[in-house]
Amino acid sequence: MKTFPLLTGSVLAALAVSLTLVSCGDKDAESSNPPERKSSPKANPVDSGTDGREKATPPVDLESEVIGYWAPDTERIIREMEEKMKDEPQALAMTRALMAPMLSSMAVEIPEKGKFFIHMMGQKQEATYIVKSVDLSSNSFNVETTTEGEDGEMELESGTFTINGETLALTGGKEDGPLDSLFLIRIDEADFKKRQDAKIPDSILDLPEGPDPEEGGPTEPAPGN
To answer: What Å distances lie between residue 197 and 96, 105, 169, 205, CA to CA?
Structure first.
């Protein structure tokens, strides 16, 4: 189905699955004003135990904090998209028409460290990742993701997870979409299951399919025919 990669193409470019909606932009923008943490990335703080001895406090585990169910922050995504595409009104109108119903059925499932799934319109795409670096000052960690491409080959991409309480931003490594990041909010299991079971909306099925770029345009008739 050709509509699935439109949204999930560059979300997972950042995290591995091909989401043409998300691209890598200014990383400072997507992680602006992160909450300050008491722990330092350079040293583990200590506190005093009941016996008067100091005991080490475990470092912040950002990777554990992202485990759970997530859904697109549709309002924020639309705002960001409108700002970046304000000089392209026709493209903006088309993108909004496609994106709204797709976002309403999309969910990101992170069941454990090193693995996540993108669910959208009854489809599921799996990706794995390894953490390359952690930056506690911005509540983010950089990852390398692996996913299966359309040709069956395994694809490697880089990306960033930025956690801020109940919100999560996924930033990718390609500059081919109208958004810098995919913004998510945490949801419960009941909401996740509704999205997991969602089917392709009629509004998507009714849209005319454009020409396949690999097939080229219509063939011109030979002169004299």
So the answer is: 23, 8, 24, 17
